[in-house]
Design goal:
Length: 304
């Protein structure tokens, strides 16, 4: 399908005219459609381009600059997915499906919240190796009672739009998976809450109701997320043109760039620069607009 640019944010006719002129200067034109209703708090307009962009990297850099200048997401897709055709969609958990980093929340209960949060933030920005930081942070939780985990989960907020996105994807038969550098204890509960298909995350080692500061099995880092995505696509026998990956951290970049639609949700600056589709102005339901759905279509599914 055709290349597109989706604008998400506070849009008005004057800016749409300005952006159309901006495209014209780059020998690009095409039709536009408003995907949202007047009642929606955030507007979404999708431009279908007359041709694909040749110098994609430069063009996406220019769009990101526009996004930063205007506060409006400008999201380029070289091809459009077909939401009506079943595919595979994989998601990071921490700060993507939920509004927290679980390791940081456990650290709060251990009384070392600020210490671990600083390391987590550095890892998500890509400043230090994820595996190294994971092992380092987890070791500091040694001795923490496992009984705090229910309370940690209960206080975590889930990402805006998660229920809407999952219901729509499942309506069309999509296979949804969590690929998380967090922990199975929490990921399993998120999976269950939204009837997702499978979970791949890290297993906490617990002995005598206390965290040992160690994990069991292989760490789910960026390389493993990419591998897991590949394995799921092959197992489900889905065409790669029907794949979605969504995350926010540097350890998500490999899978974001591997999928047909790689959405960096409220991502760190480095990830915004390197991911295919950075989106800041909506929650997870914004992915449905990138798939070309209208607010009316989304409501029809979620209210059924």
């Amino acid at each position: 399908m055709s290349a597109s640019i989706t604008l998400i944010g506070s849009l008005n006719p004057a800016y749409l005219d300005q952006f159309t002129a901006w495209l014209g200067k780059r020998d690009l034109n095409g039709s536009s459609v408003v995907l949202t209703d007047e009642s929606d708090l955030v507007s979404v307009v999708q431009f279908t381009l007359n041709k694909a962009v040749e110098e994609t990297a430069l063009f996406k850099t220019e769009l990101l600059e526009l996004s930063d200048e205007t506060g409006i997401d400008h999201i380029y897709q070289a091809t459009m997915l077909d939401v009506h055709k079943a595919g595979v969609a994989v998601f990071d958990m921490d700060s993507t499906l939920i509004k927290a980093e679980v390791m940081d929340e456990l650290a709060v209960d251990a009384g070392i919240g600020e210490q671990i949060a600083a390391v987590t933030a550095s890892a998500m920005r890509g400043e230090i190796d994820f595996v190294e930081s994971f092992v380092q942070r987890l070791s500091l939780l040694k001795g923490l009672s496992s009984t705090v985990m229910d309370g940690v989960y209960d206080r975590i907020q889930h990402m805006d739009g998660i229920a809407t996105l999952m219901k729509a994807l499942h309506h069309y038969g999509w296979h949804t998976a969590i690929l998380s550098g967090g922990f199975t204890y929490f990921a399993d509960r998120v999976k269950s809450a939204y009837s997702m298909s499978e979970v791949h995350a890290n297993v906490l080692e617990i002995h005598n109701n206390e965290l040992t500061g160690k994990h069991l099995g292989e760490i789910v880092d960026g390389e493993r997320k990419k591998l897991l995505l590949t394995q799921i696509v092959e197992r489900k026998q889905v065409d790669w043109s029907q794949t979605i990956a969504c995350g926010d951290g540097a350890n998500d970049l490999l899978m974001l760039n591997h999928a047909a639609l790689g959405v960096a949700l409220h991502a760190k600056p480095l990830v915004r620069q390197q991911a295919p589709c950075p989106m800041n102005n909506l929650g997870l339901d914004g992915i449905l607009y990138l798939l070309g759905m209208t607010s009316a279509e989304i409501r029809a599914i979620t209210q059924s």
